[in-house]
Amino acid sequence: FKIAVSGCPNKCVRPQIHDIGIVGVQYPLTNENCNGCGRCADICKVEAIDVRGETSYTNYNLCIGCGKCIKGCPNEGREIKENGFMMYVGGKSGREVVYGVPIGLIEREEIFKLIEGVLKVYSKYVEKPQRERLCAVMKRVGVGMFLEEVKREIKE
Hints:
Blueprint: E1 3-6, E2 20-30, H1 39-43, E3 49-52, E4 55-58, H2 68-72, E5 78-89, E6 101-106, H3 108-125, H4 134-141, H5 143-155
Parallel strand pairs: 1-2
Antiparallel strand pairs: 2-5, 3-4, 5-6
Helix pairs in contact: 3-5, 4-5
């Protein structure tokens, strides 16, 4: 069972292809200090920022939550909209690469609960302990059903 933790969404340790992946993220929000200088757009590696007039706008469909635009703004025109950890469950590398299912943004306190819930549900359905990977169990049981059961475990 492999768990990868990445401090930023650049995913250098490839958390999306581990059984559980944890990625720290910070999503930006433009505030009244923005003067449209464009420094945030210059910094953004995924081109998620567009400057129109004297304001910058973030396309959250493209933004990966690296937070570089927040730190790089010379006018403190960007602040943290939301931050936490993006979680991936059910990834795998090797001969076959399987990308984990993104669970969404969670708080630090929820990380261990989620891991414990995944392990409990995995243990319940695994047919070949220590040989059957999490992604295979999730596929056999059904990804939606597996994750719903994890949510129920977390609530208990």
